[in-house]
Amino acid sequence: MDVSFQLYSAREFTPWETVLQRLSGLGYTQVEGFGGNYEDPAAFRELLDANGLAMPSGHFFPMEQFEDDIDKVIATAKALGMERIFVPAVPPEQRVPDAAMWQSIAERLEAIGSKIRDAGLRFGWHNHDFEFQTCADGRLPMDIILETAPSIEWEADIAWIVRGGQDPLTWINIHADRITTAHVKDIAPEGECADEDGWADVGQGTMDWKGIMAALRGIGVDLFVMEHDKPSDFDRFASRSIDAFKTF
Q1: CB of 72 within 8 A of CB of 41?
Q2: Interhelix angle 70-79/41-50, nearest 10 degrees
Q3: Integer Cα distance of 170 and 164 in angstroms
Q4: What pTM value is reported for the model?
Q5: Average pLDDT rounded to a whole number, residues 156-174
Q6: Which of 95, 107, 201, 219 is deepest in the core (most CB within 10 A)?
Q7: Parallel/antiparallel/unpaired status of strands 186-187 and 199-200
Q8: What are the E-state strand segments in the chain?
Q9: Phi, psi (rounded to 5 degrees) for 117
């Protein structure tokens, strides 16, 4: 069973040599990169190879780097062995329900996606909760993105969909042809894990991951990425989450 791990979850627990060695020892075979891994792509690739890990996907933020230096983004992705890359967010000041702004963002994403695919890579968007705030015209930013950028993929962060007040199974069913990758994380019961922003280790929270996984597998999602936005203990999160994932 192949399972990936978003390295952002371990950003406070470096050095990366130790992190990667531990993930490999726990049975992870893949990781998802983020900006903190891209300073020296060739050197990081050596660390991955030494630990038997692949990096099939990665996050690149901010989106402007795709427009200002797309050659560097593509070179970084290919050096690390990525097949698909995602824009993970917009800056805080843009995380508002402004339909015109999201229309513009989506148009830019569609244009970027064309260039990335021309380079032999796949491209998409990763959501948070702010894409599910209703705009003045009644639309949701997530709908605007998917409608205006019809060629891009969606890496669905299921727990953020829930935090956005939405039913993830509804979104999975409606957009079965767009979701190719999923972030697997959990939400703690009300009042718990306050020091971890209310997130829980996978399998330790309130999410119905068995049902959600069945739905995701049913639409053909083939890359599942364990994530915790603010774990207080990397080893605890990584080990509990892969153990739980094996039961889904």
Answers
A1: no
A2: 20
A3: 13
A4: 0.97
A5: 98
A6: 201
A7: antiparallel
A8: 4-6, 30-33, 54-59, 84-87, 122-126, 153-157, 179-184, 186-187, 199-200, 223-226
A9: -65, -35
- Whole-angstrom distance, CA of residue 106 vs CA of residue 212: 27
Q: Nearest CA to 145 among 84, 90, 182, 218?
A: 90
CB atoms within 10 A of CB 178: 21
Provide the residue type at 175 as one letter.
Answer: H
* 127: its two tokens: 């959501």
C-alpha gyration radius of the chain: 17
d(CA 247, CA 54): 23
Give the CB-side neighbour count of residue 223, counting CA atoms within 13 A. Answer: 25
Question: Please, what is the average pLDDT of the chain?
Answer: 97
Task: Report whether 55 contacts 30 (CB < 8 A).
Answer: yes
Alpha-carbon span 150 to 155, nearest angstrom: 14
Band of residue 1 on the pLDDT scale cut at 50, 70, 90 = low
Tens digit of each residue's pLDDT (9 = 90 or more) over 169-208? 999 999 999 999 999 999 999 999 999 999 999 999 999 9
Q: Is the pLDDT of residue 105 over 90?
A: yes
What is the distance between the alpha carbons of residues 75 and 121, in angstroms, rounded to a whole number? 11
